[in-house]
Amino acid sequence: MQRLGVGVGWRPEIAAPVEQLPGVDWVEVVAENICPGRLPESLERLLARGTPVVPHGVSLGLGGADRPDPWRLADLAERAEALGAPLVTEHIAFVRGGGALTGTPALEAGHLLPVPYTRDALDVLCENVRIAQQCLPVPLALENVAALLRWPDEEFTEGEFLAELVERTGVGLLVDVANLHANHVNHGTDPLRTLAALPPEAIAYVHVAGGTERDGMWHDTHAHPVGEPVLALLAAVHAHAAPPGVLLERDDDFPPPDVLAAELAAIRTACARAREEGIRHV
């Protein structure tokens, strides 16, 4: 995987700070929010100065029962080529129900829904990933999601499921440590055990984001400061795999530039501490 460094999710609301902040090595953009022939001027300037831009898809639904939509795959491939992206990323999730297999119109969930960690679900996901890989011009990496529910009768832990997915398809992993923390709070899973199961060489980069706890549940809001438990997991994954990149996500309640810069500095500090102290959490 290409070494990316520390980056931030590009959003129109923080386009100017992202361009001007020191230490922004790369950016990620929601793939469905851009048009290849009419990129925002801010992204054009970043590309002109050599800043890598990675498209991050949210609508493929590779965890669904239907095969990936050829149009959506072609759309994602076009964006990767327009950006000169080193890779593209998506989610281990399904986002719609119905469709070709049921003969009914597809219903959009409007959310990234978790797949059950079962052998049948893994078989479907692996085949969908292989189809996507054949259609994309660059490597694909998939993100673990935060789950507000767990499916009954699961046959794998999250770590086992992700490791088997990598083994069978060679797909990369986008490890979201905020989502690992959410699943720990909401379902009692062990994020360090999950990290320990992941092949280090498969980790393409890491997402870091803030959230909040309400009524005993952790909500991955991308609208709050990054907390210490998430930074501790970032240090753990860095010690486990020295990931090629780390990216800060913010999608609402955007902070002023100095606060954004401080969060990026905290991310760099957590990564450096893991290197310097030789921390081995996993």
TrEMBL record:
Signal peptide: none annotated. InterPro entries: MbnB/TglH/ChrH (IPR007801), Xyl_isomerase-like_sf (IPR036237). This is Uncharacterized protein. It comes from Streptantibioticus cattleyicolor (strain ATCC 35852 / DSM 46488 / JCM 4925 / NBRC 14057 / NRRL 8057). The lineage of its organism: Bacteria, Bacillati, Actinomycetota, Actinomycetes, Kitasatosporales.
